[in-house]
Amino acid sequence: MKNLENKNKIVIFLGITLIVSGLLVLTSNYFNEKIDNAYSYMNNLLLTANTEEVYEIQEEVDTLSDSTSSFQEEPAETEEVKEEKKEYVDPYLQYYIASIQIPKINLNKGFTDVNSPYNTVNKNIEVIKGSTYPDQEKGNLILASHSGNSYLAYFKNLYKLVNGDVAYITYQDKKYTYKIVNIYEQPKIGKIAIYRDHEKTCLTLITCTKNKKDTQTVYILELQSVEAL
């Protein structure tokens, strides 16, 4: 009889233990979910309140494409174009005020002043209106170029970049080093939202998304250092 009572006590004890453990797990999951939701909510508030710049770029996009309302992929190079490219001398070299270098994708290209008649993706890397130059603290230099296979597709290999990769801007005898901190896609709707830290000096690169016709990819880079040349 005593043994039966002891077994019952053990069964009851184990049952209570299992119930308490289950409640603890459920409670822990509940609070963890609430904490995650709270963090997500606060991050969204910060993103919306502090980091969004919306550029109405319909006018600029028309300029970028000359005949369309969005960035366009360029046609593949013909053999004639490839032959001409071998002897190509950049006719806009004298108009460049700065250059961008991205060693990972072998990019080294100059660009003109934002108000130059040669500031268009159909000739060069384009400086988007509303940009600031690298020497402006907490500013944002925004550059756009074609992707695709054309000799004008200076940003055709941006898709190979990941967070942490670096780019350099040479401007007024100084070398500015930037690091990629965010990459995201935006629909082609005549405007573009740029999410960045307004307390940082930034560089933004924009091009068509590889293998997608209706989106463009935005690369956000933050200034790491400045070196006199």
Helix content: 25-40%
Shape: elongated
> Helical element count?
3
Low-confidence stretches: 38-51, 56-75
Main sheet record: 8 strands, mixed
Cα-to-Cα separation, first versus last residue: 94 Å
Topology overview:
Layout: H1 2-50, E1 52-56, H2 58-65, H3 79-86, E2 96-102, E3 107-112, E4 126-127, E5 140-144, E6 166-171, E7 174-187, E8 191-195, E9 202-208, E10 215-228
Parallel strand pairs: 5-9
Antiparallel strand pairs: 1-8, 2-3, 2-6, 4-5, 6-7, 7-10, 9-10
Structure description:
The strands form two sheets. Strands 3-2-6-7-10-9-5-4 form an eight-stranded mixed sheet, with no helix packed on it. A two-stranded antiparallel ribbon has the order 1-8. The chain has two domains: 50 residues; 176 residues, Sortase (Sortase, Chain: A), CATH 2.40.260. It is elongated. It has three helices and ten strands. The protein is of the alpha+beta class and 229 residues long.
Care to give the gist of this entry?
The chain has 229 residues and is α+β, with helices and mostly antiparallel strands. The protein is built from three helices and ten strands; from the N terminus they run αβααβββββββββ. The protein folds into two domains: 1-50; 53-228, Sortase, Chain: A (Beta Barrel).
Descriptive keywords:
Sortase, Chain: A, 229 residues, 31% strand, two-stranded antiparallel sheet, 8-stranded mixed sheet, alpha+beta
